[in-house]
Amino acid sequence: MQDIKTYVDQDKDRFVQELIELLKIPSISADSNYKKDMLKTAKAVKASLEDAGCEKVEICKTPGQPVVYGEKIIDSSLPTVLVYGHYDVQPPDPLELWDNPPFEPVIKNTEIHPDGAIYARGACDDKGQMYMHVKALEYMTKNNELPCNIKFMIEGEEEVGSEHLGWFIENNKEKLANDVILISDTGIISKDTPSITTGLRGLSYIEVEVTGPNRDLHSGLYGGAVGNPINILSKMIASLTDENNHISIPGFYDNVEELTSEERGKMAEAPYNEEEYKNKLKIKDVYGEAGYSTLERASIRPTLDVNGIWGGYIGEGAKTVLPSKAFAKISMRLVPNQDWKEITQLFKNYFDQIAPDAVTVEVKPHHGGYAYVTPIDNPGYQAASKAYEETFGKTPIPQRSGGSIPIVSLFEKELKSKIILMGFGLDTDAIHSPNEHFGIWNYLKGIETIPYFYKYFTELKKEE
Ligand code: BES
Ligand code: MN
Ligand code: MN
Question: Which residues form the Peptidase M20 dimerisation domain (predicted)?
């Protein structure tokens, strides 16, 4: 497969241009105003799969956003790889913090990306990483290098919790049958330290509404005598964690899997520099649960975060008002053995319990998902490891990530396969933030590495 490097080198400008075109469509799944753009993106993905040599490409309707499916079956006795990715993106707000409009991609050179990076919403998460697979397939079909069967399932609801994908999987088990699931929707430690994600955290996402008086009140006439929902919500949020940043919800830690000191020791060997970490984020100090390192806090420990909080007057100038309502969106990242449905219930019970009689609270669960951890002694992991070795010249480090892809644990349960998280992004790519970008080096490296996965996976499966 010597010529993949040459192929990428010759066609790199076209690969970048094609991705830029895809990034121009605002496929924001959270906002129903963009429904047309979701379909437009699905159609663009479909066309790209057809161009790359996929057969039976279709846009499958679901009760939510459409799923794009395609396959290239060369021989039913050969192994089958199912590629999963998502074409939806996070809302780009706050718009004023972007240096270029989020759906008008620009290429800029930076210290980390001297070969240029594409700046646009979805550049790394996940259009760029998903499209690497389309281009890798194009190379393999054009050059007769596809050693096994391949299926693609690209969805449009990942960023809002993949609510209807479970339905799609349950109804299409045969169509989706595979020997391994391959996903590029995570990252590597750095350009010279490749890593493979071996774990993802689970999630419980909740919205709370705190109601006080039946209307906004004059804060002079009523302030001090009537409970202020924003003051009360702030106190309630504060009491969700203690002085050690442990979560105070009774029962929250009951099923949390504790790592052995060996496992923690192994984790601590991963390259990591706290000074650099702080400098990159322009923070004077890190902050988190007592007794755990930064890497541990951000991967193997459960957490609770307020994602947004609002209520009252936030317009220009001052308005003296005691608001009737206050709101917050709260997420909890979960670890193996924590059941997100149980945790959601525990949260609800506790939140109801700590609310003073001055207010009523409503707890509205949004979505959730289970954590995932994969062993490394399987052909999928080994094939990915050898593929990175081939193109990075180094064995990748297995590492658990703090992010979530809720559908991954469902894949394992319903399709009974291992999931290989073969990402190429960097933590600094600003996914979900203003100025999201994806290094062109990373993008091309991904296209170059992926075909080796198929080669080694097919070989290792034959040996089994
Ligand atoms: N691709 C990310 C998850 C991710 C990124 C995992 C980097 C590991 C490293 C995915 O698109 C995502 O953002 N997931 C959401 C969950 C979803 C339910 C909104 C998340 O983790 O917040
Ligand atoms: Mn993603
Ligand atoms: Mn995301």
Answer: 200-357
